[in-house]
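Consider the following assembly input.
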Amino acid sequence: MPAHAVFRAEDTQFDVAIDPLIETLRAVLPGEGLIVHEAGRRAYECDGLSTYKQLPLLVAVPETIEQVQATVRACSEAGVPVVTRGSGTSLSGGALPHPQGLLLAMGKFNRIHDVDAERRIARIDPGVRNLAISEAAAPYGLYYAPDPSSQIACSIGGNVGENAGGVHCLKYGLTVHNVLALKVVTMDGDITTIGSEALDSPGLDLLALMHGSEGMLGVIVEITVKLLPAPLTKQVLMASFDNVEAGGHAVAGIVADGIIPGGLEMMDGAAIQAAEDFVHAGYDTQAAAILICELDGSEAEVADQMQAVENCLTAHGASAIHVAADNAEQARFWAGRKAAFPAVGRISPDYYCMDGTIPRKQLAYVLRRISELSAAHKLETVNVFHAGDGNLHPLILFDGNQSDQLDAAEALGSDILQLCVEVGGTVTGEHGVGVEKINEMCVQFETAEIEQFHAIKAAFDDQALLNPGKAIPTLNRCAEFGRMHVHNGELPHPEIERL
Amino acid sequence: MPAHAVFRAEDTQFDVAIDPLIETLRAVLPGEGLIVHEAGRRAYECDGLSTYKQLPLLVAVPETIEQVQATVRACSEAGVPVVTRGSGTSLSGGALPHPQGLLLAMGKFNRIHDVDAERRIARIDPGVRNLAISEAAAPYGLYYAPDPSSQIACSIGGNVGENAGGVHCLKYGLTVHNVLALKVVTMDGDITTIGSEALDSPGLDLLALMHGSEGMLGVIVEITVKLLPAPLTKQVLMASFDNVEAGGHAVAGIVADGIIPGGLEMMDGAAIQAAEDFVHAGYDTQAAAILICELDGSEAEVADQMQAVENCLTAHGASAIHVAADNAEQARFWAGRKAAFPAVGRISPDYYCMDGTIPRKQLAYVLRRISELSAAHKLETVNVFHAGDGNLHPLILFDGNQSDQLDAAEALGSDILQLCVEVGGTVTGEHGVGVEKINEMCVQFETAEIEQFHAIKAAFDDQALLNPGKAIPTLNRCAEFGRMHVHNGELPHPEIERL
């Protein structure tokens, strides 16, 4: 486990009187609603970032909004941290339990209340699986656009908490662009409604603020999402390149030509081979890189765009372009991409998945630098990523049984994320900060910006009980990490350090 | 002037020692940078909502970011309110001066720093006019999408502050969807950068929070906007209807069919006649309502959509459909729509422009109810609005010289906004709250929600000096307005009342 990112003592100083809290919660959460015994809590000790494990103090499994309110109110009064969890697929430890906190498991909030085809909205519980929304909307010719690779399992509440993306978010936006309203339980147990069906709401825009807030501002108990009409037609093509940089230039070129594909993904040679061996997607295993590009819309629009994309790819040196012949081949092209992470898991004992974003025009440069950094750290890196929106997922291969390799992987990962920030990008695109990238936040943000985040967090949760130790580093942590931007020798404000 | 919306005593209790402040500011703002004499301040006494007038205590006209920082810092130390102003075209009094405050006029921040065609972004000063951005981008085949009717005059900083919309925002989004990053001076004089070129940023989403915050969270000193490629082609059609409700149904039908037009506007009989008399747009003056619909994209896409829209309009009872023959006729159709407000100004001594939004499916019902409410209040209402996104602009005609008519217009306006909230809409779509709709915010929001807004405002501006008395009502004001949602007899929190 990377040593620098575990909970710090200052994040865990909660003085919990557990017996009266259990007594209060037993009255609120009958039967299996409160889990106290260790074997039951063990099931919640980690999320998708399984290198981090932590037993929660207690687990609550509420079934009603009133139970959520009463549970949160009891924790607030007892001064006990609350970590909300959906399906637990977070890749950054967002749902990692707090050792002195209650884990609020929202799995029983799994109802789809309403699919309204005319208004094109669905009103759903936070524990509903992402894919289940599209399945419920399909009879009306509608679907929910954001599609993280984990969509079969991940919950929509977690999607909001992490502002999840996916293969199609280049064209159809992130979770924040596809959610209209939230019902939220605040840390004092009140319910507020945030957002509306209108294009814009008066008052401060709290809807976007909630997205990507990683469970630190409130507990989401209901979500209203936009539904889109299924595209009339689509085409998927695979373009081969003799080197990774040419592929990077082609991506920037397509978007610069005014085309926003439904999806535009890139895989390098190692990723192609791993995916091909795993799912037999029909990829060009001779290529140094492939682009998979989906175009959707009306027949005429897709035909127009297909011509323009083929011209652009050829101009940027594509050695071959293969258009999927039918739905089955389209599905195979995407299956290979979506299975790339487990495919890489088959060829290396361990891998460390990064999630930086960069401006598209920097793609070729950054891919070359990643290759140089990998060589310097003597570790192989596999690249498979959302090229269209510049969201990289370099997978660093290592063997966790060799402790020097874990250190090297961490160091290489940190170098890659700093490279992303240097070229004008960010340390996370869609996986969130969680515990994993909390130190890199010190690289991304200035002192004043981190102070601002803490002030807003306090405006929702003045005891700092919601998911403490995640997403926003203390200035103290940044100073220790040695990456704080200290202006004119000014020290971080002491009042924030104590948070 | 509507009596209920002027500054309340509790909003104006600032104890200002003006002489030392002037001395400090003279050192910061040389020459004409500080305006103290009354004649000079008079030029800033109102914005586009000209029924409200207020002389500011002082006017600052900074030329550099450092001057903004020093000015804000001086006001912060002196406990003096700061109201930021761009071009002053706000229709809700957002830039109305505070009687004991400094008016921060950003007109000298009018440089376009950078237009980057490959990255499709422009980096600009907040005082740059909206239309000037598209003019600077035109040589590259690009433009800035949001186009409020005031675009020739309004500034981009004000567009962010009000989250401005426009005719094309149905398809291309509001200001918030077209801005990538902001440089902001906080009330303590620090600079923070909010947002980035990446699709998503780590940390809390403050970029959306700044949009529509009406100058209450910080002073924007630089803006990075997205640029879009100019559409390859476009078509504009005018459809006539024998009654307003049929037009409303047709709007809902077009969007329900999966078509998002570039623009979809509606005008009723009185608006048609007024605009026709004024600019000779070529409108069908026999119609009870017309829809103006613009479709843009590739030739093939536009042809496809045009067929679908014509089918839908016919199915919903359009009595005539006229497609503009050339660019000149397209421009005339839009000129009539954009000139509709001044055109109505020619037929009535005064008018009161409302800005509610409603779900599209409620259009026909709400238009009928507005007509009934108008009859009940014995005032004529003219409707011209962004039909596609359900953003109504009922113009209530009255004669301000007859005081009972002003009261009646206010009462009718309030009834219309409450009707919007009742059907699931909002009290403002794109004009902002300002001072004009601050009481209606009490109808829109619950106590807990308004408290949350105040807490977030305090996280940015703990002395509540930025644009006080605007946008977010005190709970005390709501209680007096008689529209506070009081739950279980609970009184509003006293600590908020004092804000």
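The domain at 112-229 of chain A is CATH 3.30.465.10 (Uridine Diphospho-n-acetylenolpyruvylglucosamine Reductase; domain 3). Ask yourself how this observation constrains the way the partners meet.
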